[in-house]
Each structure stands twice: as C-alpha cells, then as structure tokens.
Design a protein that fits this description.
By secondary structure, the chain is mainly alpha-helical. Helix content is 51%, strand content 11%. The protein has four helices and three strands; from the N terminus they run βααβαβα. Strands 1-2-3 form a three-stranded parallel beta sheet. It is globular. The termini are far apart.
C-alpha cells in the first residue's frame, strides 16, 4: 500500500452483507478500517443497508458510508435538488 499513491480505500459491499451475523466479516472490516486509519487513509464503506450494519461500522471508527440505508442511486439533477432542500432546511433550523 505504501508504494502506491493511495489516499483512500473502499470496503466492498460483499464484506458488509453479513456483518451482523458473521464474526469473520466483522473482524475483516474492523482490520481494514484500522489499517486505513493507521496509514492516514480515508475509508469508504459501501453497501450499508441497515441500522445494525451502521452501528457496527461506527464502532470501528468514522469512515464515510454509502448504501441504501441513506438513499438509492439517483440522477445528478435529483441529487442537486435533494442537497438544495437539505441546505434550505439547515438554514431554517439555524436562523
């Protein structure tokens, strides 16, 4: 890893699918996040679909998370509209 210009790792959904039931998957994910943290790499975890998976992952650090738990894939125009709505809501909360 140290020979390549890497600044982040992405943990595949296949490691996340059985995270709540499989202790080997939990050990692998924990180790990958720990390794990334020790090398000052950002970690992206993909395929998070349940609150249980999210809770387990958050125990291992503070990686970026992708998955259906948050939203389905969407077109760029829909994403921009969603972000704009959230920005407007945040402005209303803080004013």
């Amino acid at each position: 890893l140290k020979k390549y210009p890497i600044n982040r790792i992405k943990i595949d959904k296949s490691f996340i699918d059985d995270l709540e039931k499989n202790s080997e998957d939990r050990t692998l994910v924990s180790g990958m996040i720990s390794l990334a943290n020790s090398l000052s790499l950002k970690t992206i975890v993909e395929g998070v679909e349940s609150d249980g998976q999210l809770a387990i992952i958050q125990q291992y650090g503070n990686p970026m998370i992708q998955g259906y738990l948050f939203n389905r894939p969407m077109r760029e125009d829909r994403l921009l509209m969603l972000l704009e709505e959230q920005t407007d809501q945040n402005k209303n909360i803080h004013s």
